[in-house]
Every structure is written in structure tokens, then in C-alpha cells.
Amino acid sequence: MNASVAIQSLPEAKNDEELIRIVDKVIDYIKSTGLNYYVGPFETAIEGDYDELMDIVKECQHIAIKAGAPSVAAYIKVTYKPEGEVLTIEKKVTKHHQ
What we know:
4-stranded antiparallel sheet, 4 strands, Alpha-Beta Plaits, alpha+beta
């Protein structure tokens, strides 16, 4: 695992319920990738191969539009270490959730 990504998807929506419905579709897609992920209150972190993660980030925008958002913004954070391993989600947060 040479990369981790945090993505906050911000679809345009009529109300909070619609916003949550669309974001849930994006999270369902992330879950379907089979990669390790962590859903937080503001963003979802995903671990894996850099190129695969970049494809997932791109697809998240398509998923939000397909779910009915007329537009979507996203904040993305990327950690990439081509010659080694990045810190895992587990190492970063497990001690805080026991």
C-alpha cells in the first residue's frame, strides 16, 4: 500500500436528507472497491495503490452526479510514497476508538 486518500464529497443538494442520500451512494461505492476505508464525519479515508485510488476519486464525482447532484465539489488529501508504505488508517486512529 503506497498511498492513502481522504475524500470529502460535497454534492449540491436541495436539503440535508438529499445531501446525505447522495453522499451515502458515494460511500457505498467506496465500500464496493474492497479497499480498506474509514468513514469519518467529514471525509472518508481509503488505502491502496496510488493509481487505483486516483481512479476511485474520479469515480466518486461521477457517482454523485449519477445519484442526482447537479454539481459536486470535493476536497482531496493524498499521501503517496512510491518506494514504501504509508501509515495505515489503523495506526493513525485505532488508539482513539477503543
